[in-house]
Amino acid sequence: MIVLKIGGASGVNLDTICADAAGLISQGQALVLVHGGSAETNEISTLLGHPPRFVTNETGFTSRYTDRATLEIFAMVTAGKINTLLVERLQRAGVNAFGLTGLDGRLMLAQRKEAIRIVENGRKLVLRDDYTGKIEQVNGALLTRLIESGLTPVIAPLALSARGEALNVDADRAAAYVAGAVKAEKLVILTNVPGLMRNFPDESTLIPHLSKAGLEQAISFAEGRMKKKVLGASEALGLGVAQVIFADGRTAHPLLDALAGKGTVIS
Ligand code: ADP
């Protein structure tokens, strides 16, 4: 079992990624896809006159402030557009892809962050009315059943709260929980860089291999959203996934290269 997370950063080549995935699936490889949608949500929310607001918490993690209007735009973009078009692309490549969000069949349950403590211009603030969640449970049995019936699940990063609210969840961390729930051997995270760099953006400082212990230190040199990927990798290993690979989604064979160990292999 492989879980593949496809990033939404510019440059990622969905054609070659889907071609690689289709080739592996036709050979009998079980695969679950998880995608993001951050970059496109920013664009479309700006076009809709509701530009994104990013906030940084006390420990330095950055996240999207998701008020109700933002949540609805996030759902429209991730579940409506990105998920559907990824399924379209996979179907065209001969894969019987099945798109769903974490709300469908209660696939992903999350705890809503009732209040987020942020630091803005050196001041501490508390934001409420945020529809962001932290995943607590993924229904691995549902995914296994879909795969056993010949379908390839494609998951949009939305989850369900205990009160039945839709929540925006981080796609990298969602992929980590999905990988744990389906007992994946590998979690492949494709983005628009060759892997984790010690000294970003100097590609000569690419880290080819990282141990679980090395991950702690990696949080410190990963910037911005890369921090979430490192956190996701650590969570996946904690959930029993043997290997997490950060690799380049822009190449001619992104998934095959990643599985061959190109990128940053964390184990
Ligand atoms: P995606 O949308 O694919 O999930 P993100 O934009 O969220 O991707 O995260 C990938 C980005 O993280 C890269 O494009 C790069 O700009 C940034 N980044 C920050 N620190 C590092 C680092 N140490 N190594 C590699 N990339 C990094």
Provide a count of the helices.
Answer: 8
The count of DSSP E runs of length 2 or more, i.e. the number of strands, is 16
CATH topology: Carbamate kinase
Largest sheet: 8 strands, mixed
**Superfamily (CATH H level) name:** Acetylglutamate kinase-like
Q: What is the highest CATH level, the class? A: Alpha Beta
The CATH architecture comes to 3-Layer(aba) Sandwich
Helix/strand/pairing class, anyone? Answer: alpha/beta
Q: For the residues shown, what is the average pLDDT? A: 95
- Cα-to-Cα separation, first versus last residue: 16 Å
As a whole number of angstroms, the C-alpha radius of gyration is 17 Å
Please give a quick description of this structure.
The chain has 267 residues and is α/β, with parallel strands linked by helices.
